[in-house]
Amino acid sequence: MSEVPKQSESQKLLTPDFMHRIERLDVMSRKILHGKMQGERSSKRRGQSVEFADYRNYVVGDDLRFIDWNLYARLDKLFLRLFMEEEDLVVNVVMDTTASMDLGAPNKLHYTKQLTAAVAYIALLKYNRVSLYSFTDQIVEALPNLRGRKYVPRMMDFITRQSCEHSKSVPGDLINVCKRLAMINYNPGVIVLISDFFDKGDLAQALKYLGDPKHDVYVIQLLSPQEIDPKKAELLGDLRLEDIEDGDVAEISVTPELINRYKTNLEAYCKHIRDLCMRRNIAYMIGDSSVPIETMVMTYLRKKGLLG
User: pTM (2 decimals)?
Assistant: First the structure.
């Protein structure tokens, strides 16, 4: 009887079939972002690559190599050929690894790893520059400036080793994290922030740091099914709840009325985050860790405009 091969760490995040399906996608930007290296992205700038874009009248000082002499022979007028420049895109994916992320069924942290792996994999295959970050009250670990397919194993290794073990009794601090991200990412690019946003700080101040016009920011608020609907957690009776991050304790009696009030408050909180994002021109979406990762990537992220 032959031994069944063990599943690799990368396959626990993305199956080979799914990786093959997403290879045709690319990370998109709602803005014109000028990269510094040649990539597979056709920008809206006109430059000097191989893909013809348009003509314009010749003016003194233009490069004579780009005059269309065939057109001159027919029209007796000088025209300059214009081409589409191809450029890379800076893609930053930021993972919340605070203690609250290590909850839920399916687990929120594992789902975050899958999302991060999918976006980073797509970006690397399209020769964009990829940087990965994990955070609690600060940026815990970073893997900056990857470019090209050869870095996929390194990217997968970084993602799989992230955990919430170091964040027990350490409350998140999105203000500090976002401020640091703004300082690190001085070049224009896409920033994808994945978090449950269970943070007691001033979210308006945190998102203000990411709202720089040069960045295209996508916020994914990831919740578990049990957080969206506590009935799925089968919580009943008198309970003593302890905040997994800062140790705050609350004694409650779970009733249908309390669950309804919780749902109302959660809906208001999510709307608050969405409104803050809209004011900063940040794309916002809410994710459910029970949604198949294939659906999240192939449908929801494409509808939101992050992938195309």
Answer: 0.82
